[in-house]
Design a protein that fits this description.
Number of helices: 12
CATH superfamily of the largest domain: P-loop containing nucleotide triphosphate hydrolases
CATH class of the largest domain: Alpha Beta
Strand order of the largest sheet: 3-2-4-1-5-6-7
Shape: globular
CATH topology of the largest domain: Rossmann fold
Number of domains: 2
Length: 435
């Protein structure tokens, strides 16, 4: 029977990404059809799960997605896999607003009914680990915590101490595994989080080591037996974002890798054809496309190559296609991008925008936006939900704005983005329409 499991943690940095990726690789090696999901708006963790499982990892976002969109994604996941492993976001009860659980892993667990396995960083802890786990297990009876995996366990003696404490105070909660701490299972990071999987030269070796360690340290059969079919919501209306056109050319490479797979699936579901091209390989978008999508990514790390990609830039400047850019894609549609070393690179010049990484400033959080004018995304006043996460500074942004923007509390954040003719974009990664 197909079902899902959510892997959550008390806090970020507990090691759940590599544990989920290792489990996915192990199940793939065993011939199981396992699918991956990620709670929340993160783009980078899913690159590990995609690489480990051999199939796209999709995001499930209980704050930004409407019930119709979540239901469509859950149906696709469970109909195409024997088991769905979903990695949570941050701590189990960390939500989109102060003191709120909206958008949290816990909310996703309540909506889906999938059981939660708590991944606990046991480094530096002894019997106190039982008090920590008990607090999470008792905090919300609507969130079904079904087991525990301990991570960064120092020794067999340490494992025995931790296991005894859990058995004494939480006899009903199974300890499904105890992962030893090791420097050979550490993921590199940079300014937006982990380094994406495809940029790590020995990623398959790393995933293989993680799979082998998990096979030794965890009760895989007992873990898989916890899976429960999702409670699918019944909701009417189209799922996902409106398609930008009938045929959408999507930029995809190391500079443009932040694409939600659910967005692409939603466009296909609504009848759009998709093609892909690599700006870093100086490939132009398809001439058959009537729309071009430049997603986010790391253009700041490849600005010189993008500035020299004459065929790619000429394809954007053709003028006959709708062009939409998000975050990194938005910066490339601008006039210039200044990299972290202070070097200026000329970009497409289709929007009156100049951005810089020489003086970085972090912009992070969910966004509720409304269109200020009509276009491919909809009519003026139509609402969307999305997420913003970047370190770029806007040096100059002038012209007609695209969105009116608010945060999760409803606070007015002003206007954002630009539109000029059939070219538009902003720093907001759109996730779904708003009700």
């Amino acid at each position: 029977m197909t079902g899902g499991i959510i892997f959550a943690a008390p806090k970020s940095g507990s090691g759940k990404t590599l544990i989920v990726a290792g489990l996915l690789r192990l199940l793939r090696n065993r011939g199981s059809r396992a699918a991956a999901a990620k709670c929340g708006p993160d783009y980078i963790d899913p690159t590990f799960h995609t690489r480990a499982s051999g199939r796209p990892c999709v995001n499930l976002d209980p704050w930004a997605m409407r019930p119709a969109t979540l239901a469509a994604i859950l149906s696709d996941l469970e109909s195409s896999a024997e088991l769905v492993l979903c990695e949570g976001v941050m701590g189990l009860f960390d939500g989109a607003g102060p003191g709120a659980a909206s958008g949290s892993t816990a909310e996703l667990a309540r909506l889906t009914g999938w059981p939660v396995v708590l991944v606990v960083d046991a480094g530096g802890q002894g019997g106190s680990v039982a008090a920590l786990i008990e607090g999470f297990a008792r905090h919300d009876p609507r969130v079904p915590i079904a087991g525990v995996i301990l991570n960064r366990v120092a020794s067999p003696r340490h494992r025995a101490l931790l296991g005894d404490a859990i058995a004494q105070y939480l006899p009903e909660l199974p300890m499904l595994g105890a992962m030893p701490g090791t420097e050979s299972l550490v993921l590199a990071s940079r300014h937006l989080g982990l380094v994406p999987a495809d940029e790590i030269a020995d990623i398959d070796t790393l995933l293989g080591r993680a799979a082998a360690r998990i096979e030794e340290a965890c009760d895989i059969d007992r873990l898989a037996a916890l899976a429960t079919p999702a409670r699918l919501m019944t909701a009417q209306g189209p799922s996902g974002l409106p398609p930008l056109g009938r045929h959408i050319a999507v930029a995809r490479d190391a500079a443009f890798l932040f694409t939600y797979e659910a967005t692409l699936a939603g466009w296909r579901r609504q009848g759009a054809a998709l093609s892909f091209f690599s700006p870093l390989a100086d490939e132009p978008p398809s001439l058959q496309a009537d729309a071009i999508y430049l997603p986010g990514g790391y253009p700041e790390l490849h600005a010189g190559r993008l500035a020299a990609a004459s065929r790619f830039l000429a394809g954007l400047r053709d003028g006959s296609q709708t062009i939409y850019g998000e975050c990194g894609g938005y910066m490339v549609l601008g006039e210039m991008l200044i990299d972290a070393n202070g070097t200026t690179h000329r970009m497409a010049g289709l929007l009156p925008l100049k951005t810089s990484f020489a003086e970085r400033c972090r912009h992070l959080g969910y966004r509720a936006v409304r269109l200020l004018g009509s276009g491919p995304l909809g009519d003026a006043g139509d609402g969307f939900r999305g997420h913003e996460f970047h370190y770029a500074t806007i040096v100059e942004e002038k012209g007609e704005p695209l969105f009116a923007v608010g945060d999760t509390s409803g606070a007015n954040l002003g206007r954002a983005g630009l539109r000029r003719g059939n070219v538009f974009g902003s720093f907001v990664h759109l996730i779904d329409r708003a009700d």
